[in-house]
Amino acid sequence: MSAVSKKTGLIVLSMALGLLMATLDNTIVSASMNKVIENIGGFEKVSWVFTAYMLASTSTMLIFGKLSDMFGRKRFYLIGIGLFLLGSALCGMAQTIDQLIWFRVIQGVGSGSVFPISFSIIFTLFADPRQAAKLSGVMGAVFGLSSVAGPQLGTLISEHMSWRWCFYVNVPIGIASMLVLVFSLRESKAEKKPRIDYWGAVLLVVATVSALMALELGGKSYAWGSWQILGLFLIGAVAGALFVAVELKAEEPMLPLTIFKNRLVLGISLLCFCQGVIMFSAIAYLPLYATAVLGKANSNGILTPMMASLIAGAIVSGFLAARFRFRTVLFVNMALGVVAAILLMNLSADMAYWRVIAIMILLGLGVLGPLMSLGQTAVAMSVHPKYIGISSSVVGFWRNIGGVIGASVMAVLVNASLKDSSREAISKFSIPADQSGTLANPETVIKGASQLPADLLTFMRGEIGGAISHGFILSLFVMIAGALVALSVGNARHEKKNDLKHPSDLEAPPSRFG
């Protein structure tokens, strides 16, 4: 094996380790939260442990992608890993829930670098797009693998060691990724210092954080019509409008809006948004369906098939994308999404468990897995090389935005349905009116199943299942829209580009790309 091939393999290994670390983190942490609450308390703020991470990673993703295009991917990948490791170490030492939340912000900022830059390095490392597509599928499989292993690993670590090691475990993986990249990749230096779009970066963060916080807090901490939520939406809208105005005039915009003139880039962005809607909705509500409706002891049995099949879907799509037009694969992907949404809309309390598992496999194999790799590949192959970093960021950005919007809107639909069900239960079972709020909370069924009368338990399980299935109507409309968008992306397919002479070429500064 040549020296170049060895270095290439080491770089891919480094990217896989970094991506494994970042994706493993969320699933491990979710499995350890009970132990965290037992140790440092803060049950009422526990959702912010995840919200803070999501806000930080989503709002910085585009910024890191652009800066990596301007100053070198190696540099900002190492910065991101460094921030992630710092946040991990601090999270492991947290003494209060507030400290843990703020340290998760540091982790999230680092994660905002790892995701987009990992994929952009892969795309610029391999001259043949078909080979890049296959490796992109493997990277997508890393995401699925961590999602499957994370809950079990998190439970094992928190029960036999300490919840703090769920964070400390990131440190050796991250250090290994950093060291491999430091010694295997040379970084070219730009001939002139690019100008940074500071205003664009600030406005992007303000717009993203304000909108996502409104969606996260709406209907939970504050009413949707409250001044707090309306104010956040207003700030997000104003900042978003100013961001677009700034980007149209900036010499080196943080988000080059011209990339969306490409039909494939615009189409993939919309499709990733659609994927985020059904993916986050499923992750948020199917565990609830398994425990509250089907009476399962835990949710791993329902999520594991979906995540395991996601691995296969990510790998297979990488090979399919190398042989078929993007439009063909994307349309099939969205069409299967329509089928999955229809099936999810028919969930019920008496559905056979094997049928539920079959739906999960379809969702992972046909809907979630393919776009995990294909979205990154198609966009990266459609833009100028100097925009590969930002284009890779765009894919993850819109998937996260779609996820938050999807989960928030579905929560509105499910909660509204459960309120109607609780009122019906009050009249049907002669329950005191002051208990309507309790009945509308699925935790009542999960934790108090043995105390509830059998007929009331059966009724509420059926109503919760109906409410969740009703919520997936949003996913159906979104996936139908996605199928139509898929038909509009054009006839693009992989085309082999000029070979790169050395892996270090991927660090070429903007002037060399021009």
How are the elements arranged and paired?
Layout: H1 3-40, H2 47-71, H3 73-93, H4 97-125, H5 129-160, H6 165-168, H7 170-184, H8 198-217, H9 227-249, H10 263-293, H11 300-321, H12 326-344, H13 353-380, H14 388-429, H15 436-439, H16 442-447, H17 454-471, H18 473-486, H19 510-513
Transmembrane segments: 47-64, 76-95, 101-125, 132-150, 162-184, 196-215, 227-246, 266-290, 302-322, 329-347, 353-375, 387-414, 467-487
InterPro entries: EmrB-like (IPR004638), MFS (IPR011701), MFS_dom (IPR020846), MFS_trans_sf (IPR036259), Tet-R_TetA/multi-R_MdtG-like (IPR001958)
Domain Major facilitator superfamily (MFS) profile: 11-494
Describe the structure using short key phrases:
514 residues, mainly alpha, Growth Hormone, Chain: A, 4 domains, 19 helices, 77% helix, disordered C terminus, MFS_trans_sf, DHA2 family efflux MFS transporter permease subunit
Overview of this protein structure:
It is found in: Cell membrane. Residues 11-494 form the Major facilitator superfamily (MFS) profile domain. It comes from Cohnella hashimotonis. The chain crosses the membrane at residues 47-64, 76-95, 101-125, 132-150, 162-184, 196-215, 227-246, 266-290, 302-322, 329-347, 353-375, 387-414, 467-487. Helix 1 packs parallel to helix 5. The chain is globular and about 75 Å long. It is an all-alpha fold. Mean pLDDT is 79; it is low at 497-514. The chain has 4 domains: 1-185, Up-down Bundle (Growth Hormone, Chain: A); 197-251, no CATH class; 258-408 and 475-492, Growth Hormone, Chain: A; 419-469, no CATH class. The protein contains 19 helices and no strands. It has helices at 3-40, 47-71, 73-93, 97-125, 129-160, 165-168, 170-184, 198-217, 227-249, 263-293, 300-321, 326-344, 353-380, 388-429, 436-439, 442-447, 454-471, 473-486, 510-513.
